[in-house]
Task: structure prediction
Amino acid sequence: MDHKITAISQQKKNRQRVNIYLDGEFAFGLERIVAAWLQVGQEISDEKIAQLQLEESRETAYQRALKFISYRPRSQSEVRQKLQDLNITQENIDYVLSRLIESGILNDESFAQLWVENRSAMRPRGRRALVYELRQRGLDQKVIEQAVSEINEEELAYQAARRRARKLQGQEWNDFRQKMFRFLAQRGFTYELCAHIVPRVWSELHDNDNSSDEEVYL
Result:
């Protein structure tokens, strides 16, 4: 059965959507991009209406995914979970993910690399902590291994310890050691690495302190 488009009006609360009127009555709303080819006076079939509504549901899901990604980069798994939480159909989720991946907006390899780089620059983590975080975001093990393969864990531990040392100035050695060990361990650094880094940072912190030349022991 064919229906005649009798009016197309912009929605007041969302300028990116329009209302479609068929045979003198409101029928449904559409994203402007989906309704771009429609004109008043045009006749459309029930089959075409069904197709428009499918395209509408896909476009709505796509826009929601883009909004989710806009806050920060996301993994494929994170986007999938978000759309599932929004009760998007599996068919539309697959469509959205495919579209985002093909356009390069979603790329797990780039996401993992960026995650490691940001962590290393802002809040250094050990390899095992980074692996855990990336697994939590649903990344493939091969992608994770690639992302952490070239990190300099000793340098990351050193940078993290130096930053933390500013807050521990004035502490006695035993307190400094315990707190720094705990801090570095929580960030995924191994005991062996901590045992190497902590005395180094302590010594640097007291280079200009001539009040004590006591040797540091672990």
In short: Residues 127 and 148 are 7 Å apart (CA to CA). The longest strand covers residues 2-10. The chain is about 55% helix and 10% strand.
